[in-house]
């Protein structure tokens, strides 16, 4: 019996896709990476995932786990060899349980993030992870890259939002670790080892997630700013005055928002005059547990003081849920506008907030010196220091000519990140995009420890090979 026959036996013939049926799974969302696969396999349960892994381990066939296929670093795309099996988890899409008293929910890895948010809301609770792809990305993908999104400032990344995991190991065994405990010091923290590992150590099939009380009120404002220094000053003021109620602080360059308005004329920047042409904007959100009136009064007082001091040039406060959604839609449309205007070279970096001004100023200048005419597309989660610092085609550049210099652009930007004590990957993962750069920026001891973990948990090297760590000869 062939390996494909084994896979059909494990999950059912309709769920082993080849040829044209497999094509949608073989190219990433940005259309930057394409590969080939022996088959795309769609298990419908944890037991079926385990059976697929055991079959692949016995045959020495690599496995590429895939969720919603919305990743930005090629982490869920197979290589060109055609030897791997793409293991799609989209059929593992059940919300298994919700425990309001324990403020937890157990969901399968193929659950779409928006579905999880809605299920939590239906139980009178909040699951706070929020990001632009929430209508299509899956919890398994969020876990694999330790996703952060727009509310990390208050709630943390997926590591902080996860209490337990269910994982299929590289040998096809199942670790039943779905404990809803906030304290469990009974050994090594395996949960955090698998989160962020991009499917290179095992396959997450379900997770126990933390829930929170629904906020009584939310206030949202778009701030017009003269500089990043002013944005950082406003962030410090908001942290001091709002404390834990501050849930979001997003930084966006004026060029980013101009691109959104140009690409999507139905959207508009809600400022006029000088405030409509400033270089920086910030989206600030407060979640209050007392009342709408209390939240609004605090919000208006703090923003009024910030305007009087000159820290903020102007502000638009949303007066309704619809207006709040419109302001967030501006922020969430930046990647879509960026894609519509050309293929950018993306950098998802972490920078100490205190070094953000120096980093942006010096790196912008260095890029213009080295690549005259390129466009900087700068936006991100200023509250936690996560900047999406992208380089797009400008005057004299085409998609092809810019991508031909990708390695040079990466080296310049990543060297600048490293120089200010930052990280070259904040929330998008490493995948194959940044895999080779790790050698340049991580200490040899750190890389050796990572390889030791990989060897211990995946001795056959079949779990998402070529992602995060380069494949080494045996």
UniProtKB/TrEMBL annotation:
The keyword Secreted does not apply. GO terms for biological process: respiratory electron transport chain. Keywords: FAD, Flavoprotein. It comes from the Bacteria. GO terms for molecular function: catalytic activity; FAD binding. Its cofactor is FAD. PROSITE patterns: FAD_PCMH (PS51387). Residues 33-214 form the FAD-binding PCMH-type domain. Belongs to the FAD-binding oxidoreductase/transferase type 4 family. This is FAD/FMN-containing dehydrogenase. It comes from Rhodanobacter glycinis.
């Amino acid at each position: 019996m062939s390996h494909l026959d084994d896979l059909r036996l494990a999950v059912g013939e309709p769920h082993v896709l080849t040829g044209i049926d497999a094509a949608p799974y073989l190219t990433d969302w940005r259309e930057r990476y394409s590969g080939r696969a022996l088959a795309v396999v769609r298990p419908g349960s944890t037991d079926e995932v385990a059976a697929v892994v055991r079959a692949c381990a016995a045959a020495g066939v690599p496995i590429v786990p895939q969720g919603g296929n919305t990743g930005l670093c090629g982490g869920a795309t197979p290589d060109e060899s055609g030897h791997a099996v793409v293991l799609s988890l989209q059929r593992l899409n059940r919300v298994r349980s919700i425990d309001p008293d324990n403020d937890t929910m157990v969901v399968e890895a193929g659950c779409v993030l928006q579905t999880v948010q809605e299920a939590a809301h239906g139980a009178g609770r909040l699951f706070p992870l929020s990001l632009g792809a929430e209508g299509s990305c899956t919890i398994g993908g969020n876990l694999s890259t330790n996703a952060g999104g727009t509310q990390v400032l208050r709630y943390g990344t997926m590591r902080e939002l996860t209490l337990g995991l269910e994982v299929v190991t590289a040998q096809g065994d199942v670790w039943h670790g779905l404990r809803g405990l906030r304290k469990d010091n009974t050994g090594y923290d395996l949960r955090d080892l698998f989160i962020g590992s991009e499917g290179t150590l095992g396959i997450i099939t379900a997770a126990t997630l933390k829930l929170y009380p629904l906020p009584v009120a939310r206030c949202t404002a778009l701030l017009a700013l003269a500089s990043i220094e002013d944005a950082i000053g406003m962030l410090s003021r908001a942290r001091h005055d709002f404390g834990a109620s501050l849930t979001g602080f997003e930084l966006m360059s004026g060029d980013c928002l101009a691109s959104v308005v140009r690409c999507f004329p139905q959207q508009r920047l809600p400022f006029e005059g000088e405030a409509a042409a400033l270089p920086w904007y910030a989206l600030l959100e407060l979640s209050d547990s007392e009342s709408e009136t209390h939240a609004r009064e605090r919000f208006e007082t703090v923003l009024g003081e910030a305007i009087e001091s000159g820290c903020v040039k102007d502000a638009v406060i949303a007066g309704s849920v619809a207006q709040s959604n419109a302001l967030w839609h501006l922020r969430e449309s930046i990647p879509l506008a960026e894609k519509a205007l050309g293929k950018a070279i993306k950098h998802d970096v972490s920078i100490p907030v205190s070094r953000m001004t120096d980093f942006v100023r010096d790196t912008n200048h260095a890029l213009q010196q080295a690549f005259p005419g390129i466009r900087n597309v700068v936006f991100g989660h200023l509250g936690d220091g996560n900047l999406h610092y992208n380089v797009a085609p400008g005057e004299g550049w085409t998609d092809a000519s810019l991508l031909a210099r990708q390695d040079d652009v990466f080296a310049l930007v990543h060297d600048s990140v490293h120089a200010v004590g930052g990280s070259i990957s904040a929330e998008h993962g490493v995948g194959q995009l940044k895999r080779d750069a790790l050698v340049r920026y991580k200490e040899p001891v750190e890389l050796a420890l990572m390889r030791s973990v990989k060897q211990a948990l995946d001795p056959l090297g079949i779990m998402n090979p070529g992602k995060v760590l380069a494949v080494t000869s045996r």
